[in-house]
Amino acid sequence: MYLELKNISKRFSDAKADEPDTIKDVSLGIEKGELVALLGPSGGGKTTLLRMIAGLDNPTDGDILIEGNRVNDLSPSERHIGFVFQNYALFRYMTVFDNIAFGLEVQKKDKAFIKNRVHELLSLIEMDDFDQRFPNQLSGGQRQRVAFARALATEPSLLLLDEPFAAIDSKVRKELREWLRNMIHEVGITSIFVTHDQQEAVDMADRIVIIKDGKLEQMGNPYEIYKNPRTFFTSTFMGDSTVKESFSGFTGFPDIEDGSKIVIRPEYVEAFRDDNPKFKNMIPFSENGTVKDVIFRGDSLDLILDVNGVELKTKRSLERRPVKKGDSMRVIVYRIIVYGNHKNEVLKNEKLKNVDIEFI
């Protein structure tokens, strides 16, 4: 294991244990070369955890180990860590070349080495012709690429990124995170980034660590986290779910009225018209529903449905027949997640087990 956090806690002198950003007995391990996302709501302790790994804050309890060596008492420079901030933190009056070279100059590397290293990094970030420009002459995405190159200049063994795309518009952010993921894997550097954006974590990370109220909720690869949420918070934080505390009268499911929480994700729901031949054999297993709202999402529609007094959500392709508010639909629920009675479980629609239908 390259990086290990063992029972890390952080209590601020003026904070109680249940206040935001307080870290509570977090343990996790990160393999060399992994790209890991610390994901969770604002104030959950993600940045505090990142700062402790960097050496900018010290844990109250527990140990931080890099390659098996305890680093709690080492300064940030001694930990050989690169840091990329969300606001770029570039020097305004330095050129791109000088910004990238800064750490190497502090290390008193010779000029020939610095020149070669900077141009190597400019090529890596695809900005060879921008070396003499100043930060105010660059776009947000370009500034973040320079910040990334500057963090890599001294060849750190660990790269930390604190919400690196927060200051960038959505289209550029999507392009930049794909670029950054490819670059990090090309360089092979172990990296940890903080985000509260679920899609960003899913798109980029090899593994996701979900942090809430200073505690580790769940850790795993994006597919595992999304498909098999182990806690109620994870199941509602990842995706756009309907949450109910009772669930009755739905074909294929037992009544659940014991105080458990029921989570129904949009992909667990299908809505179709009575006259759709593809779903003809599904009508006996469906419920009557009414469209409460139709929300255009650009590449798809979100349907808000009233089914037996329960509001459900599902997605609908733009290629299917249009629907409007007030339309009657047939609705099938494929599965639900139940949290309660000290047991979490996924219940599948019993009526669909022997039905030949492609769920899409």
Walkthrough of the structure:
By secondary structure, the protein is an alpha+beta fold. It has 2 domains: 3-230, P-loop containing nucleotide triphosphate hydrolases (Rossmann fold, 3-Layer(aba) Sandwich); 242-352, OB fold (Dihydrolipoamide Acetyltransferase, E2P). It is built from 8 helices and 19 strands. The protein has a 6-stranded mixed β-sheet, sandwiched between helices. Strand 9 (207-212) and strand 10 (215-220) form a beta hairpin. The longest helix has 18 residues, at 170-187. It is elongated and about 80 Å long. The mean pLDDT is 89.
At a glance:
Helices cover 23% and strands 31% of the residues. The protein has 8 helices and 19 strands. The strands form 4 sheets. A 6-stranded mixed sheet has the order 6-7-8-3-9-10, with helices on both faces. Strands 13-17-14-15-16 form a 5-stranded antiparallel sheet, with no helix packed on it. The protein has a 4-stranded antiparallel sheet with strand order 2-1-4-5, covered by helices on one side.
